[in-house]
Design brief:
globular, mainly beta, 4-stranded antiparallel sheet
Amino acid sequence: MNTLARNLTKLATSLGVAALLTLSAAPAPAAHADIVLVHPEVAYALLAEPGGVATSWSTAEWPALDMTLTVSDIGARSVGSCATGAVCAYSQASQGGTKLEWTSCGSKSTAALATVGSIANARSSGTLQARQGTTVRASATAGNAANVPIAYRSLITNVYC
């Protein structure tokens, strides 16, 4: 993560909110900025993974990647939050924290998460892998979840199914 993104994330985390500035591409007599308030983890993800759009305080979507990020409420970190037919990556162990969810398979970047603590495979068949490049660090069979070993959580770059 670059220095600007790291400092924005630290500031946003300390304030409990994040403000993303989107400068208008069209020339205007005065600078124009739209301020969107989002959760700090949504701000991090939008900075880390280009092409995303904040859709609410706690969610962002990347239409070109078929990816959605959802920040879980502290009380809502329940097992089984990965929708039927989807695969998910979570920032914390045991399907906790912020969630990325995909409804299609292939190699999916997890750059929008600072760490990947667990994965869930809510499909009816196949295996989901949490990978560091092409090296598998954790896997979950259909209908199951798996924790990524602590030593590899900050090194996961993608999930693959």
